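Long-time lurker, first post. I've been practising inverse folding by hand and with some scripts of my own, and I keep getting stuck on stretches where the structure tokens seem ambiguous. Below is the full token string for one chain I'm working on. Before anyone asks, I'm not after the true native sequence, just a reasonable design that respects the backbone. If someone could post their per-position residues I'd love to compare against what I wrote down in my notebook.
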């Protein structure tokens, strides 16, 4: 099923052809007017056609309106201002389109990604270290994009590219054999591994020979020593168990978890291959890939180091091997990386190097800004230690419990605990996802847990109110239908709900989950106006049927939209 925007795009293009302006490559996409009095959609296509034809845009718009094909979806089309075309939808057709999108209690999206595959790389914590708040943005933005693309029909492979290889493991093995507290490891494995790693650093400052021992243990691991390999596997398993507990709490899933170790056998052949192709060169014993003006202004005169003078590989080497593996294994149409803004140059170099190597792929670096707490950076505690992600979640849930206890004292303790978990975690996610990923963001605990404003609790409450209406209506087996848009608030809500599929597509196109969040906030606000203006229960059977259908559609859009953001909808709050 076409979105409203796609349908209107076809009509506008047909009108341009019929008016004598031809079917050209001038971009065309109707937008939503800032002022609803200007219609439901607005096209500025006449401006672009007028510029191409050196004609007056208003005259072009008038000719297009005159030539616009009759269509049951369009009630009126008129020229406005210097050449805008304002389109208003027919109420009956709008209601029919909305009902056609309702599938049971769900809401059907278009499937432009059907038959396409995407690999998305996000989160990527390091083994033997706790997930900290610095992993939050990559994890939840990446998961939201995974959900959005999957909802549009894409086959999505979520790959957690963990840091599970390198010299740190040799250090950890030395520390393990010298200073392990077995009871501490049994009680808190990752906590003890972190302690050992930090202790090694302190001890190595006093005795530099420990660094030589660590390098020897690393070499043994990398050569396949059984004892070191078994110990490394123990570190990995303990870390993954803790990571999975955090991911379960966040509702985040991965299809594969392939760390740096997975690609080690590919690194040496890759380096030798690019040298043989003349794509890389040796420089003072190291191997580098140089970039010139042909690679773009941002990359000109930069270089990517893919082997150090001591023979060690680097992140860039592993990332190139990872691209090759993903292309061989899944043949994706798209590979996306969700990391912070500081890695922009690195990934630009990796993408350019991969193309030089003959890898035909479409990459996307979804970069995001920094994260701060109101009043200071969120990345560290007073002692200077990194703030653990689980502590951030616990704080949010604890604060949410205070709000829930104050408003829902009639519910059982177990119910309130479940609601607090959903609200706290949802609030953390939404505070991030409701903002442009590329912006630095500030977490304000009081603001993000407010029941008013653009927050997760506000959206969750709007959905719970929809569910409450249905409980009060006592209409088991309700089937939506018979929508009559007689009150302005009914119509405003219907237009907004019907736009949902194109909003989700736009969010995917821009790689910005906040586009979905903005839409959900608008739906919740518009539903609040509808709820205030239009009594649902107790009206005539026809009116009640119509308005309950709008409530059902609202609930379906809010539920689906929150799930796209990884937020759990609640029937009661």
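-- Answer (accepted) --
I ran through it position by position. Result:
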């Amino acid at each position: 099923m076409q979105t409203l925007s796609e349908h209107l795009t076809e009509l506008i293009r047909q009108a341009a052809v019929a008016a004598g302006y031809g079917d050209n490559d001038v971009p065309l996409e109707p937008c939503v007017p800032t002022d609803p009095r200007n219609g439901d959609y607005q096209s500025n296509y006449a401006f672009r056609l007028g510029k191409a034809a050196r004609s007056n845009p208003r005259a072009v718009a008038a000719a297009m309106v005159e030539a616009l094909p009759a269509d049951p979806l369009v009630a009126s089309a008129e020229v406005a201002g210097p050449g805008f075309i304002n389109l208003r939808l027919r109420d009956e057709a709008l209601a029919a389109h909305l009902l056609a999108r309702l599938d049971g209690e769900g809401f059907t999206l278009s499937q432009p990604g059907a038959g396409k595959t995407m690999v998305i790389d996000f989160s990527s914590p390091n083994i033997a270290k706790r997930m900290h708040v610095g992993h939050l943005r990559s994890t939840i933005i990446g998961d939201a994009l995974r959900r959005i693309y999957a909802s549009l029909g894409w086959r999505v492979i979520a790959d957690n590219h963990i840091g599970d290889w390198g010299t740190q493991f040799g250090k950890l093995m030395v520390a393990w054999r010298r200073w392990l507290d077995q009871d501490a490891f049994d009680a808190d494995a990752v906590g003890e591994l972190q302690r050992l790693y930090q202790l090694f650093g302190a001890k190595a400052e006093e005795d530099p020979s420990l660094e030589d021992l660590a390098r020897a243990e690393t070499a043994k691991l990398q050569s396949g020593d059984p004892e070191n390999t078994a110990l490394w596997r123990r570190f990995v398993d303990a870390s993954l168990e803790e990571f999975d507990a955090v991911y379960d709490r966040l509702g985040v899933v991965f299809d594969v978890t392939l760390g740096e170790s997975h690609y080690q056998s590919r690194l040496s052949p890759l380096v030798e291959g690019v040298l043989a192709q003349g794509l890389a060169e040796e420089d003072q014993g190291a191997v580098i890939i140089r970039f010139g003006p042909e690679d773009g202004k941002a990359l000109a005169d930069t270089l990517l180091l893919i082997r150090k003078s001591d023979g060690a590989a680097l992140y860039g080497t592993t990332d190139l091997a990872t691209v090759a593996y993903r292309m061989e294994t899944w043949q994706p149409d798209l590979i996306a990386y969700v990391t912070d803004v500081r890695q922009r140059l690195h990934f630009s170099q990796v993408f350019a190097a991969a193309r030089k190597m003959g890898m035909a792929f479409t990459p996307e670096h979804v970069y995001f800004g920094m994260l701060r707490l109101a009043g200071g950076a969120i990345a560290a505690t007073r002692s200077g230690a990194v703030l653990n992600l689980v502590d951030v979640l616990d704080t949010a849930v604890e604060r949410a419990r205070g709000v829930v206890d104050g408003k829902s004292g009639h519910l059982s303790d177990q119910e309130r605990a479940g609601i607090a978990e959903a609200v706290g975690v949802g609030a953390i996610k939404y505070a991030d996802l409701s903002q442009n990923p590329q912006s630095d963001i500030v977490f304000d605990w009081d603001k993000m847990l407010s029941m008013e404003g653009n927050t997760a609790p506000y959206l969750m409450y709007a959905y719970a109110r929809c569910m409450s209406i249905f409980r009060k209506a006592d209409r088991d087996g309700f089937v939506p239908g018979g929508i009559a848009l007689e009150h302005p608030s009914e119509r405003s809500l219907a237009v907004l709900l019907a736009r949902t599929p194109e909003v989700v597509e736009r969010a995917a196109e821009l790689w910005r989950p906040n586009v979905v969040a903005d839409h959900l906030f608008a739906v919740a606000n518009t539903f609040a106006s509808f709820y205030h203006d239009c009594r649902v229960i107790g009206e005539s059977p026809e009116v009640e049927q119509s308005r309950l259908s709008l409530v059902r559609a609202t609930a379906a859009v809010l539920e689906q939209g929150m799930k796209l953001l990884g937020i759990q909808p609640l029937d009661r709050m």
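A couple of notes from the structure itself: The first helix runs from residue 4 to 18. The radius of gyration is 28 Å. Happy to go over any region you disagree with.
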